[in-house]
Amino acid sequence: ITFRGRLYIMFTQRVHSGELPYRQLQRRSVISSLVNRLCGLGLELAAQLGARRYMRFKNWDLRRRGVKMGGVPLYVAPDAFIDSTDYGLISIGHNAVISAAVKILTHDYSVEKAAYACGVIPGREFRRVEPVSVGREAFVGMGAILMPGTSVGEFSIVGAGSVVTRDVPARTVVVGNPARVLCTVEEIWQKSKDRVDVLFYE
Fold first, then answer.
1. How many Cα atoms sit within 13 Å of 47 on the Cβ side?
2. What is the pTM of this model?
3. What are the CB-based long-range contacts (under 8 Å, 24+) for 29-33?
4. Which one-letter DSSP state was computed for residue 72?
5. pLDDT along the chain (202 residues), means of 10
């Protein structure tokens, strides 16, 4: 568990024990919400001013929240869901692309129902919290879901709508639910190179 995660646990324990007054908790929550809302408005404005300005602001915001940045991502969509359980559990590599409606999850509370079904006495909270990493030059397609404890290797491609439940090896293409290896990036390039448009950037 990361340092931010330990702080969160200590914080919630103080709240439940009554050590931290509710008004103080409420004030902190309001301030945090206002800061996040202002950053959200800033991102919306930056998006209207062009992709480069948007990504500068987005990278700053992700670092502010504690996401581990292994360089500068090429693109992270405005509506991509980044799990806020502990931002320090998420790492994004250089030139990685995270497309629209992608969900990066680091927590799973469904294990609680499994525990109760196996005879564990209700009254305690169970969850699984594990890191997620997106390697450098990786591409995560629209609507894909990265489940807790998974990693996407460098130069890999996750197809649109895929649900990643296990590690994606480097330089591979995965598709489906659950995501399975379709081919290598070299194979997909050989199949696609005669059908792609070439764009040049200054």
1. 12
2. 0.77
3. none
4. -
5. 58 56 50 57 60 85 93 93 94 97 95 86 82 98 98 98 98 98 95 77 50
